[in-house]
């Protein structure tokens, strides 16, 4: 009986001692915080519109504007992530797109208004001078920003874009003419019948699935990818975007003519006023034909043009390593 009491006493003492001990500390052997890339996201109220932003990485700010119009920043990820090692990337969703606020009146979706949104984000986040990278429609927006606010830029990067809607319409016309006759006839028929207002009520504000497949899946796909076609590409899922914005800016008459307010983008004779270091990139089989990039390069003194081989419109998917090295070498050139 006495032995049992002794054992119980020892057990209680050991238990209390154990409870009073500090938990073991895990000591990190990583003394290099530079391999951690924190992400910040939020909203900037720009011209009474909430603009979503996401910032990742270290270094000088590189603001990135997406295409569509009416897509979001999401399609850049994960492909542009290697750039966060040398630059702080600031992605935005343009007004009405992605996570940013939609407008009740679509007439507010203009390139000019989006330029002011970019400038408001730059000021609100205290970015100082920035580099800006624009892809596709985002390249149009980046040009418009540079033409008004180039004193706020250190570098301008124009990827797979155009400087003249009239000239882009000629390229789109050529793409359509090169189609197989059956596909072209199918697309022509749907465009003649009108592209909106068909199907069930929830379908009436967008292209029909048949047109998305024909125009984006069959007509555009060869100009989107070449070296690494995206196995997850789905032309109908591509239609998850801001349709009121798209109709306002691109127009309502199909993929092969831009006749919305984006037709105001005519910068050919203004490009010579851009004096900041400029990089222009394009795929050799890009939807935005290389001839457009070559003309831009001829107009912007000192600009550099890189045509990626075996590449469509999504050059950072087709040639990811080459795309990243090209951007890094431009932004961090040894002087």
Structure in words:
It is built from ten helices and eight strands. It has 335 residues and is of the alpha/beta class. Helix 3 (137-149) links the parallel strand 5 and strand 6. The longest helix has 19 residues, at 2-20. It has helices at 2-20, 111-124, 137-149, 165-177, 181-193, 209-224, 243-249, 290-299, 315-318, 320-331, and strands spanning 39-46, 49-56, 60-65, 87-92, 130-135, 153-159, 278-283, 304-308. The radius of gyration is 26 Å and the shape is globular. Helix 5 (181-193) packs across helix 6. Helix content is 36%, strand content 16%. The protein folds into two domains: 37-165 and 265-331, 3-Layer(aba) Sandwich (Rossmann fold); 168-261, no CATH class.
